[in-house]
Write a structure and sequence with these properties.
Number of strands: 14
Number of helices: 14
Helix content: 40-55%
Shape: elongated
Number of domains: 2
Order of helices and strands: HHEEHEEHEHEHEEEHEEHEHHHHEEHH
Structural class: alpha+beta
Radius of gyration: 28 Å
């Protein structure tokens, strides 16, 4: 079959404009398909993150600024059976609504940040971060979006920090966060957060019933000045992103629509190519090509067109996702667009499968055409 490759390529080159437009359309559709897949992968990674951790926040919270828990709650939470460690977190964000350029500051004690998060510094050092009162560790993605460099300053509202390090994380959403010192964020002018925090992260021991511990925490803190709600970390993030989850679920169908679009586009182009070469296929059969070989030639042509477009669209999507560090977030929780090798492989395989399916009907008609009638065409 490979010795017919020059014939297939010449047939595509003969109608360059039509081939280019079909490849371009396939590329755009697969670009959107991969973007949708990246959002879905990011959502799945975020909602399944650290199921052995609980988030304690103020009851009826609708934005980080409305959750103000006494920092002393950490002692009561740490005393509960099954709780291994408690991390107080002060959250500040530039936008509580859904945004593609959300900036989230997390104020965390430096000694707890180093042990609780698996962060890999690509520039800067932990010593610089710990020594600077206004030092910040910036996620790689937000650094790319905001063009932040080591040693530079960055300000959102009343919060102004110095970049002491840029980090990567195994959790894609972490790379859209900026970590600062807890006390620095609490004492920033205008926040009025001394002695209070936005939430607590309770890390649990292995084998502990997370739901039981969550209920115990809320029960013991019920008599305090501020009532709390405690959820698994994944469930907390899913509840915060509830509206975005609905949009992502709808976008799931958009991905399927893109595949159908490619199927229709390539099938139409292949039908036109077969109609243009009715006599040519008849001549090929006259000189000895069997109908099955003509069938495979048409299939090969549609598959090549779809593969070229799908590979270009998939490659461009992965490049943009990797370089852009895109994320969407709301209420201080970021949802990272997660590019990955499996996503790229899936995009190319979908392109190949679509190309084969798109060529089946035109190839069947080409192989079944009557030779004499085709020569008279």
């Amino acid at each position: 079959m490979f010795h017919f490759a020059p014939y297939v390529l010449k047939g595509l080159w003969r109608h360059r404009a039509r081939t280019f437009l079909t490849v371009s359309g396939s590329a755009v559709a697969m670009f959107v398909f991969c973007f949708v897949g990246a959002v879905q992968d990011g959502l799945e990674s975020l909602t399944q993150e650290r199921e052995n951790a609980l988030i304690v926040f103020q009851e009826n919270r609708f934005c980080p600024t409305t959750s103000r828990l006494p920092q002393d709650y950490a002692k009561a939470i740490a005393a509960i059976d099954g709780v291994k460690d408690v991390i107080p977190i002060q959250v500040f964000t530039n936008n509580c609504r859904a945004s593609l350029d959300i900036v989230v500051f997390n104020g965390v004690p430096a000694e707890k940040l180093r042990t609780a998060r698996n962060l890999t510094l690509v520039s800067g050092s932990w010593d610089d971060f710990q020594q600077r009162r206004d030092g910040a560790l910036v996620g790689r993605d937000v650094a790319a979006r905001r063009n932040l460099k080591l040693g530079g300053t960055f300000a959102i509202g009343e919060v102004a920090v110095t970049v002491a390090g840029i980090f990567e994380s195994e959790v894609p959403a972490e790379q859209s966060l900026i970590y600062t010192h807890l006390e620095f964020l609490q004492r920033t002018s205008g926040l009025d957060a001394v002695g209070v925090v936005t939430q607590f992260e309770a890390q649990l021991a292995d084998g502990v019933d997370a739901d039981s511990v969550a209920a115990t925490i809320d029960e013991q803190l019920h008599a305090g000045p501020v009532a709390t709600v405690t959820r698994r970390k994944g469930a907390f993030q899913a509840s915060v992103l509830a509206d975005l989850v609905s949009l992502v679920s709808f976008a799931h169908w958009l991905g399927y629509a893109c595949v159908v679009l490619v199927l229709s586009l390539v099938a139409t182009t292949t039908v036109m190519a077969v109609q243009d070469r009715v006599r040519e296929h008849a001549i090929l059969q006259t000189i000895g090509l069997r109908p099955a070989r003509v069938f495979r030639l048409v299939i090969a042509e549609s598959t090549v067109v779809c593969f070229l477009g799908g590979t270009a669209g998939t490659g461009l999507a992965l490049l943009v996702l990797t370089a852009g560090g895109l994320a969407i977030g709301t209420e201080g929780v970021a949802l990272a667009f997660r590019p990955s090798l499996p996503l790229g492989v899936a995009g190319i395989l979908v392109s190949l499968a679509t190309g084969v399916l798109a060529g089946v009907t035109p190839a069947w008609h080409a192989a079944r055409a009557h030779i004499v009638l085709s020569l008279r065409h």
